[in-house]
Design a protein that fits this description.
The complex is a heterodimer of chains A (about 350) and B (about 350). In chain A, about 35% of the residues lie in helices and about 15% in strands. Chain A is built from 13 helices and twelve strands. Chain A has a seven-stranded mixed sheet with strand order 2-1-3-4-6-5-10, sandwiched between helices. Chain A has a five-stranded mixed sheet with strand order 7-9-8-11-12, sandwiched between helices. In chain A, α1 packs parallel to α7 and α3 packs parallel to α4. The longest helix of chain A is centred in the first third of the chain and has 15 residues. In chain B, α1 runs antiparallel to α9, α1 runs parallel beside α10 and α5 runs parallel beside α6. Chain B has about 350 residues and is an alpha/beta fold. The radius of gyration of chain B is 23 Å and the shape is globular. Classes of the chains: A alpha/beta (about 350), B alpha/beta (about 350).
Amino acid sequence: MSTEAPAHVSRTRAGEPVTLLESISEALWEEMERDERVFLMGEDIGAYGGAFKVTRGFLDHFGPERVIDTPISEGGFTGAAAGAAHMGLRPVVEMQFMDFISPAYDVLTNYVATSLYRGAGPMPLVVRGPVGGGNRGGPFHSQNVEMAFFHTPGLKIVYPSNPHDAKGLLKAAIRDDNPVIFEEHKGLYRAPHCRQVLPREDYVVPLGSARTALEGDDLTVVTYGLMVHRSLEAAAELAKDGIRIEVIDLRTLLPLDEDMIAASVQRTGKLLIVHEDTRTGGIAGEIAILMNERAFEWLDGPILRVTAIDSPVPFSGVLEDYFLPSVEDIGTAARYLVNY
Amino acid sequence: MVREPASPPRPSSIAGLDRGVVEDLTFHGFQARFLEDRVRALARDGEIDPGCASFTIDVRSTVIARAMYRAADGSGDLCYPGGHSPGPSLAFGATPLEFLRHLASKGTSAGGAREGGLSWADTRRGLFGWAGPCGLMTQVLTGAALAFRGRKQNRAALVFEGCRALDAGGWHEGMNLAGALRAPLIVVLDARDLDGAEQRVESIGAVAKGYGFAFAELGQDPFDALVRVVTAARRRAVDGSGPTLLELGPRSEAGPWALHESFLESASDQWGLAGAELAAIERAARAGVDHAVARLGKEPSPDPRDALAPVRTDHEPSPPWTRREPPSPGRMESQTGSAHVH
């Protein structure tokens, strides 16, 4: 086996900036180096290095017992990962596209999420993979899957927006004793504007903690993933007119950092929720009722949301651009609320 | 082996089994039999959910489990006993009281009465229970078996599935994965109801072959033959030769305990186990079950105030606000917990 670490997992050690995809690779590599219980399962992750090359070079270094190429059988290998987790290992399952997590819905919701509850013990299992639209992938390669699992007690759901958080959150997820769904937006994987120089020392970003991506007093925008960047773009436009919005990047969707949202809303009095996922049953509904319970007295306007349209993700660029929330959509809603 | 459902059990040749195994098999047979009787009685009396009385103990599954390597320190094999069958659980060290606590939804059960099946897991004893989607545990035990191999441990996983697993996509995914990765796994497919099932599988052996499994068919074979088959499958698993599928054929028309009766005869005739010794083993098995039933009535019910807590390791579910202090208009808890007046 090769002892050399490939370049794409060594950039931080060399002091170079990394993309979000490289930060994921670095997190996996470093956790596998740190803890021999960590291993990977998924389709084409070994010899091929993964559909997006997240695990390129891993097989040579860690060997086939820790980088396991599986049949195209998401339910089967997620179930197997659960069995390995029961035996004390810490599996990280890759869904080639998170759209394909649906065959594993049964095992994740009925078995994995209920493990501790049923008396079967902790379940240190991470299921990670690419999500999101904007790549003309159509309905089977572009979905956001968080709300399919948000309603299931026992799970955690993570959705980073930048390399620093992605690396720290993934490390925290791997070290967590609970099952974690980890979503990685394809549109951020290699985005040049997202590149960051990361700390050389080991770090984690605690699960369940949001961050303030931009401070402001006029309006709270709660968002995550790629929409953090669109919200920041909108904020830059609004700032030209003297409107200062606060952007909260949730980072972890389950458990939700209610305290940070409530504190911000209590200060700004206005709340806009932005997500790329479709509208009905989206996380905006849950956040809205939470703030209704916790911050109603502070609200000076309706809680609004900017989301994708209730539709499968379209393939055509024209249709997909119309389907997805845009910077303009966020700006329009923000202005409406600020002027309410 | 040839399946002979209608033929009476043959006298067992127990050559090759040591005395400890013979005594164990004798004990487990008695224990499973008494436990099944008491569970049915408890169900009739309303002490446990009548649905729980639907299980039947095939004594052969107890023997199969006994043929694995069992340990109490986490170094032994792993067994998923199947939906409601206590036999293999008992062989892997579960006690009748543990079993009954589950069925009676006692707060002392390992799962805290949050799930009614045999859902507890005790990886130190190698016990792994779950009553859920058909075929799922073949996937899970495959992963456990791969963990054994990854750690270079000479351990194997044993999973019992009902014949309806043949209908379930999850079971086929598990079989495919286990075969492709040569997992140290033994799958026992209890095919006792196969003839009445919906599926049209001409040959379970052909299914096994297709997935790269070795295969053996278990009929009304005497205990020692069962032990030998399982021992060979286990050896094959841990030496890296791959998984095995065992088809457990229909039960004897002579009744579910005919094989045990036959084994007791052999134990006496061929192993020289005296009648007094057999009687002592029978008494011990009965006493254990009686004790468990007597204790069951004294076991507490679960307390909903804390029983629902362990959903995640770091989270306690919050009850609806209507069961707590209601929100006070104009006065809310802030991020830091201090009160503010708007």
